[in-house]
Amino acid sequence: MSVSWNLWHGCRKISEGCRHCYVYRRDSLYGKDSSVVARTAAFDLPVKRKRNGDYRVPSGEQVYTCFTSDFFLAEADEWRSEAWDMIRERSDLSFVIPTKRIDRFGVALPADWGDGYPHVAIACTIENQEQLDRRLPIFKALPIRHRLLFCEPLLGPLDFHGLLDSDIDEVTVGGESGSEARVCDYDWVLDIRRQCVEQGIPFNFHQTGARLRKDGRIYRIRREFQHTQARRAGIDYDGTRR
């Protein structure tokens, strides 16, 4: 089971992967300015309790963290220490924290972090070769116990040129959603999978995106089918060397 924990909402666009951000797209429907960052009512969700004293989020859940902002956003620096306190308290949960700001990872890092909390996975998001070359070396040099790569939205082919190894727990790939989505080429997806298989790194094709190019043809895929169509491709890889 899994839950979403959006401690704060709002973000600033910093790279090509942000151009058609789903948060901006959704907020625009309600006339909301997505660049305004604010704490949410769910800020303390992991430590909220029921009347009987039990945590509202039961033990064992996977918590997807800050998917409508960025955990390492500068505007959230004043709140991050408190967020880490809650994460530390709920060591019985598994937290997944994606970020495009891996260069800010050390800001307000807990003093007892060491080489990482066992129940926390940091997911570095990369969308093209430029960001791979910039973010991945930083990511691999940091004291992180569980490392994930989110190649979403995938905007071009990726060459990991030796940086993909056992330090990475899993690579997830997906195309861009929305009416303005840029094309995701299936050959790019397969080549990333090939690099994962060569290194024995688990690979997950998360979603096709709204425009998938395969064998030279562009397929327009409705949002409700983008995850199922990716699963039907049958190319996920569990990390077993072949």
UniProtKB/TrEMBL annotation:
KW Membrane (keyword) present: yes
Species of origin: Barnesiella viscericola DSM 18177
Chief localization: membrane
InterPro entries: Claudin_CS, DUF5131
Protein name in UniProt: Bacteriophage protein gp37
Compartments in which it is found: Membrane
Topological type in the membrane: Multi-pass membrane protein
Transmembrane is among the record's keywords: yes
Keywords of the record: Membrane, Transmembrane, Transmembrane helix
Gene Ontology cellular component list: membrane
